[in-house]
Design brief:
single chain, 257 residues, alpha/beta, Rossmann fold, 2 domains, seven-stranded mixed beta sheet, four-stranded antiparallel beta sheet, 10 helices, 11 strands, 20% strand, globular
């Protein structure tokens, strides 16, 4: 098995993943794993709005299949992969491509074993309903709080502004095309340089599980924990990682295989 000197949260899942597979007698079983980039229509159907990153061509969904179960991961560096669970466990998690394959396969495997739920992205009108439910949950639990969104999901962003007001919402993103733009009256900050400020200004932060793939997850979560901030990871990408490591996650409309 490959190792890395840095003990990232994603690396911490590897030994647990191995143990689960051993306990279920899957480690030496020939398991076919197919990961391929999905088209926008395959991934999220035809939602009414067209400004989701996957529709605009900025991201793709990698889908891994394990014993009939499916797991998704969002990435800007999708590639095909065919192998076994052993092969996936041996991947170096040093690139977006490999992290996407590993995470999607982890999601699919844990979904097959009934250990992780909502590992497949919702479709059609569900992303809008998901955003409404997330905003409603945050309002019920935290009242008129200041909310941060790390990773631009336009449906969630719009509902947060409607629910909490422009003055109580902050956005950040890593996509240079988004940085500095106004979205629903709120400027999108540079996630490369202003994540710390966003976290310090907010009472609760929701951030995309795609940060696991682009390797910014650890930095964000560590800052949140150090400052005692409430947080939630949103989306299907982080399903299995949050299950294994006990992180708070929101994915109201995610689907199972």
């Amino acid at each position: 098995m490959s190792t890395k000197s840095k003990d990232t949260y994603l690396e911490q899942t590897r030994s647990r993943f191995m143990e689960i597979i051993k306990n279920k007698n899957l480690l030496n079983t020939e398991v076919s794993v197919l990961a391929r980039p999905l088209t926008p229509e395959e991934a999220i159907g035809t939602p009414g709005r067209r400004d989701f990153p996957i529709i605009e061509g900025k991201e793709r969904v990698v889908e891994s299949k394990v014993l009939g179960a499916k797991g998704h991961a969002f990435t800007d560096s999708a590639r095909e992969f065919t192998g076994t669970l052993n092969d996936v466990l041996a991947l170096e998690l040093s690139s977006n491509q490999n992290r996407a394959i590993y995470i999607a396969t982890l999601n699919a495997t844990l979904n097959y074993l009934k250990k992780a739920t909502a590992t497949v992205h919702c479709k059609d009108d569900d992303p809008e309903d998901c955003a409404k439910e997330i905003a409603a949950l945050l309002l019920e639990k935290y009242g008129r709080a200041t909310v941060g969104l790390i990773g631009m999901n336009p449906a969630i962003a719009e509902r947060l502004v409607e629910t909490f007001g422009i003055e109580n919402v902050h956005f950040s993103d890593l996509n240079h095309a988004n940085i500095g733009q106004q979205k629903f009256g709120v400027e999108i900050w540079d996630g490369h340089t202003l994540t710390r400020e966003l976290i310090e200004r907010c009472d609760v932060v929701v951030f995309t599980g795609t940060t696991l793939v682009n390797d910014s997850f650890d930095q964000i979560l560590d800052m949140l924990i150090a400052r005692g901030k409430a947080y939630y990871v949103f989306g299907v990408t982080a399903a299995a990682v949050c299950t294994l490591l006990g992180f708070e996650r929101l994915c109201p409309r995610g689907r199972d295989s």
